Known about the structure:
By secondary structure, the protein is mostly beta strands. It has a single domain, classed as N-terminal domain of TfIIb (Single Sheet). The protein contains one helix and five strands; from the N terminus they run αβββββ. Strands 1, 2, 3, 4 and 5 form a five-stranded antiparallel sheet that branches. Strand 2 and strand 3 (about 35-40) form a beta hairpin.
Amino acid sequence: MDNKLLEILVCPLCKGPLHYKKAVLELICKPCRLAFPVRDDIPVMLEDEARRLPGEEEV
């Protein structure tokens, strides 16, 4: 994942910052508790494709 791209990407819902979890290839939005997948180095920024983070999962 390109660092310059990470600097400009924001959550499509709340426009907040995203945190990249390289180990699981996801971009995490802490306020929305959503994990957006990264496939072939391309972030999939669709709400329908995002995984809801359970309350006990650390973000």
